[in-house]
């Protein structure tokens, strides 16, 4: 694996975790939103990750000049992660009796979003730690490249 591949993999992780943090922040910000544009309570969102498999970091022009077996081996490297989708959580929201609330139904119940702040904070910690781990990997790659340059000179 080359220096650039390691940076690309870590950078994809940084980008994916940043988007995950954005989605988590959106969930927390909407944890009390009882009416969206479609008239229902906000639905919690979650990020689905997928591998960037079979997306070669080497331009196809270079690959076309190599042996097929070598080109296939190179293109099979996994090049990090990508966000495959942002999905809504279809679990039901909390039903609370508040007959004076403007969004109360005919029985006086309001359906609040299915956002659990404890879950969101746990996910936020996980995303933050993953982001930090990718930063550490970038720093390690940079340090190794600098040491290799020192050895070569």
What would you say this structure looks like, in words?
The protein is 50% helix and 18% strand. It has one domain. The chain has 153 residues and is α+β, with helices and mostly antiparallel strands. It contains four helices and four strands, in the order H-E-H-H-E-E-E-H. About 14% of the residues have low confidence.
The assigned structural class equals alpha+beta
Give the ordered list of helices and strands. HEHHEEEH
Would you report the number of β strands? 4
Alpha-carbon distance between the two ends? 22 Å
**Oligomer status:** single chain
> What count of structural domains?
1
Strand content: 15-25%
Largest sheet strand order: 1-2
Principal-axes shape call = elongated
Radius of gyration: 23 Å
Main β-sheet description: 2 strands, antiparallel
Rounded mean pLDDT score: 85
H/I helix tally? 4
Low-pLDDT residue spans: 56-76
Considering DSSP H and I runs of 4 or more, what fraction of the residues is helical? 40-55%
Could you give a quick summary of the protein structure above?
The chain is of the alpha+beta class and 153 residues long. Helix content is 50%, strand content 18%.
């Amino acid at each position: 694996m080359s220096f650039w591949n390691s940076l690309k993999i870590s950078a994809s992780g940084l980008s994916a975790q940043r988007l995950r943090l954005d989605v988590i922040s959106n969930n927390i910000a909407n944890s009390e939103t009882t009416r969206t544009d479609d008239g229902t309570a906000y639905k919690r969102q979650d990020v689905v990750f997928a591998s960037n498999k079979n997306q070669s970091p080497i331009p196809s022009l270079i690959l076309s000049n190599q042996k097929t077996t070598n080109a296939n081996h190179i293109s099979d490297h996994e090049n990090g992660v990508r966000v495959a989708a942002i999905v809504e959580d279809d679990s039901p929201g909390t039903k609370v009796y508040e007959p004076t609330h403007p969004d109360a139904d005919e029985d006086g119940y309001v359906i609040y979003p299915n956002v659990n702040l404890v879950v969101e904070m746990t996910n936020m910690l996980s995303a933050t730690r993953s982001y930090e781990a990718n930063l550490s990997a970038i720093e390690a790659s940079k340090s190794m490249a600098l040491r290799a340059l020192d050895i070569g000179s």
